[in-house]
Amino acid sequence: MDVRTKDNIKTALRVSCMAFAMLLVLVLLTGVFWGSKHLVVQRHVIFYDNLPENFDGYRILQVSDIHVGTFRDGGEDFVRKIINTINEQHCDLVVFTGDMVNRQSSELDGMNDVFSAVSARDGVFCILGNHDYATYSKLSESEQKSDVDRLLDMERGFGWKPLCNEHVRIHRGEQYVVLAGVENYGAPPFPQYGDIFKALKGVTRNDFVVLLSHDPSHWRMQVVPNTSVQLTLSGHTHAGQFKVWGWSPVAWKYVEWSGIYKKDTQVLNVSEGVGGFLGPFRFGAWPELSVITLRRIPLGLGRNGKR
């Protein structure tokens, strides 16, 4: 290889490295200053043949992984934007699928007026995510437990209803659907406090069930093999807060990490969430709210709407 060729190769490598570095800087700046605030609303329509007739067209808004500590000291306006956008959807039910805070409940101090503004005809329900147990803080075990209790009390103060391994029935006339919620349960090293059997105690296999479970790993681990739960709503992954052409590095860890997944008649939606534990950065995996419309398949029609 002659000297000129070697010089050309070195020049090409330098240019390539500079271009790559500039691209990384552009992605970083876009993700921090624009992407972290680029709120989108994802809409899904899911058909069931066993959905109670009175719930045909029922609309659920799912919000997940707020990580409110990331938006303190200057980001509160974005949190208000999230709340306003939730209310603008006019859904029947609002559910929050965990990770309200980054480290502990004090991140919510002074935010009562913001979160208590969320409203829906059938109420606002919530569960705990792995960050909500104060395990990322420098608190003792007893202090962590007290902090979880304080977080739950604050959510109740918003007018929200926490579901900690329990369920409620939402009625339309004499018909109802079951809304169940479990505490965090997923792949280690995250805490495993969820008890799906306790949450579904007294629920029959004929009941239509919507389950709130923060970690989507729970769906494959316990929900699908042990229950007939029709719809599970999860978050947790954030889609890695980075997604290009429908792919994220988080796919190396999670089989189900963004959007709708189906196993026979059971469906999972994984929300990419709105916040970020590692900071206000999102690229491709924009902050999102999910609006899910439940539809009943008319008698005699198949799942594709044909006889």
Report on this structure.
The protein is an alpha/beta fold and 307 residues long. Helices cover 26% and strands 21% of the residues. The chain has 6 helices and 12 strands. It has helices spanning 3-33, 76-88, 112-115, 141-157, 196-199, 217-226; strands at residues 40-48, 58-63, 93-96, 124-126, 161-162, 166-172, 175-181, 209-212, 231-234, 259-263, 266-270, 288-296. The strands form 2 sheets. Strands 1-12-2-3-4-5 form a 6-stranded mixed sheet, with helices on one face. Strand 8, helix 6 (217-226) and strand 9 form a beta-alpha-beta unit. The longest helix is centred in the first third of the chain and has 31 residues, at 3-33. It starts with a helix and ends in an 11-residue tail after the last strand. Residues 300-307 have low confidence and may be disordered.
